[in-house]
Amino acid sequence: MDFKAVDTLVEQGIKDGIFPGAAYAVGHKGKVIHQNAKGRHTYCPDSQATTVDGLWDLASVSKVVGTTTGAMILFDQGKLHFDQPVAEIIPDFAQNDKGKITLRNLLLHDSGLAAFHGYQLTLTTPEECIAAIYADKLAYPTGTKMVYSDLGMIAFGKLIETISGRTFTAFLNEKVFQPLGMSSTTYNPVIQMRERAAPVEAVEPWRAKLRKLRGTDTEEVRQLEKEPDGTSWVRGEVHDPNAMLLGGVAGHAGLFSTVGDLCKFMSMMLKKGDGIIKSDTVEMFTKRQTEESSRGLGWDTKSEGSSSGHLFSNKSFGHTGYTGTCVWGDPENDTFAILLTNRVHPSSENTKIIGFRPKFHDAVFHAIHGWI
After folding, report:
1. Please, what is the Cα angle at 308 between 302 and 313, to 5 degrees?
2. End-to-end CA distance of the chain
3. pTM value?
4. CA 202, CA 209: separation in Å to the nearest integer?
């Protein structure tokens, strides 16, 4: 197998300004068959080179690696029931006609909750943010359409804590990350780990305000975030505004990880749980649930125009992240691909990654299976 075309494509992506750096990997038939890194942390020529052990803000890939995996484990334990109303577990959630929303609705993104609210602009504490979500009004009637919702997955993170009786991080560390040996996967990386993190955008006014309120605007952080050319960029702190407001730990975003750790995770998924999750549960969560959308339970599946490209099979499952990350698994061809970038640097207005992802996955497929 020759991955030269994949490497060349990533190099061209850097030249085209799609992202300043990337780490990526391919697995096939139980083995990691290609792993590489290209570019630098920023477009500054003296910036730190991207490496395969670099740390990346996963953004919404956190929804599947963290929250959805936690849901699968609780389902296996008989503690999570899809058609149970959320309000039976979290009574405050019932406000403003949300009493009939079920756990399934949250996982399918058809709950009626809005996609996103800019809570970081008006609120300052995690408690205020959670209370605002519980008090939010429906944006559309529950179950009538799919609207991809960060708010729903934030609520699901709180469900996992309530059902498990553990903090979100403690539960996932014990049940997922530690058993898989994912030693670099974490929420709120410590300062030493943040030195390996790819920078994102500049510090926004609301972020600067929160840092001062929380006492995290330190000289150590300022030095960490300064590039050789004198510019400064958020580094190793979650990019997502509401995840930042929630203290860096949330059901929709917040995880940092490496390409190596995600290889372990995706290998487990293609091995149908590999002792972490029951095989039937993996198959159920990663299968399209309705004709109305491409969503599985938490996971997305292949659809027209999918980021997985044209060649991954229709049984493929995956997820993308706003910062420029994605993971895709193809059980029919026993293949996975991981692409981690910081396409939001220096600005999230850069959306060229949308056209790049399908080309990347097609190139991966060609490298393994030839030009078919």
Report:
1. 55
2. 14
3. 0.97
4. 14
